[in-house]
User: Fold these one by one.
Assistant:
Number 1:
Amino acid sequence: MLVLLPLFATYHVGILFRPRAANGADLFTRLVAWLLGRSLSLYLLVLAVLVICWYAYLKSRPGRRALKAAGWPLGLVESLFYALIMGPVAGLVLRKLHLIGTGAAAGDLLSALVLSSGAGFYEELVFRLLLLTGINIFVKKISRPGISRWLSLPLALVVSSVLFSLAHHVGPGAERITSTAFVFRTVLGLFLGVIFLFRGIDRAAWSHFFYDVIVVVS
């Protein structure tokens, strides 16, 4: 989790100086924009609570923290590789389903860096670390032993990916939902979910960040 600190810091500092970046962005950024609109003090209070919780978590796992930090440079290269193939994979699925490819409008690069940092951190934290893991555990608890082995993880992966896609179309200012956008983001969610399961939350978060930046730059 320590290697996610740059994403966390870039997002929360950047959004203070690029508040317009929140317009039409993801659900979590719209929530942050709402907090900023309500009160800067409220925003800073929530941010302080998050930092304290994160610090407490890192203090409880010193060995893993050092291990993750040591492999960070290679992890970034690995994440960039995943990001470069995510779009083509999702596009291939769309073509197989006879759907038109989706694209993102180019925008301000600095705003894109801020939003991509937030998406990489919070969306992976919520949809992969919390939801995917939580659904997997829940299904295992309520299923028969023989069934849970093959049902829980695929179901958790699919449900968390669908919710990930839908979250981009929720709330005021959200993108209008279309079959193309929905399927495209669901496939991206599946891809990120597989990265999370096999390589961990840090690879998934940085892959998400790099992918979003690449989309804007290209």
Note: The mean pLDDT is 79.
Number 2:
Amino acid sequence: MATDPKFVRFLVLFNCDRDYYECHDVMEELWLEEGRSRFWQGLLQVAVGLHHYENDNYTGAVKLLRAALEKLDGYADAEAGIDVKRLREDAAAVLAPLEAWLAEGSGGHPPEPEPIEIRVIDPQLAGLVAAETARPHGDQPRADGE
């Protein structure tokens, strides 16, 4: 599961490209294929929450980041080759100032979110992510992994 090409692609889009909309599409496919796991859904919701944040939909960002944290809270600190504990901490660090800003009436500019990177802790997965990162952008692997 952790070495699924879609998961690898998701990590590249999330960590390197910061293309939260595209990585949401990739993760949604994996989530549906893998039986709608709460874990994959939590990762999906982090990406969608950050996409909403980037597009000034702050209420949507709060809703999705809260939902993501709720889903990911039930998982081990390390799952599927990634550091889930750190992801939860980073998502919470983005969420808290945004919630405070909204509670204060949204005056001025919204807080600038701290960048989130999903830390890959499994060596095999890290190698796959590095290889995918080195691949030219238009040269995506086929669905069968080739």
Note: The helical segments are 5-17, 20-33, 38-54, 58-72, 84-103, 123-134.
Number 3:
Amino acid sequence: MLAPGVSVASGASVARSTVAEGASIGEGAELDGALVGRSCEIGARARLGRGCALGTGSSSARARR
């Protein structure tokens, strides 16, 4: 579920996740089963899986490999 005002960049995928108002999801990010709070910033190519929860105003940089 995507709340109003959510920005999803090109190539990002959101499945079985809840994303609150004003959140931003970066290019190529993958969310599957995540809970993202208001005004969060998910970085490009970040991966958030089942059980991952970010509180209001949090940010997630992309994971290094």
Note: Strands lie at 7-8, 13-15, 18-19, 24-25, 30-32, 35-36, 41-42, 47-48, 53-54, 59-60.
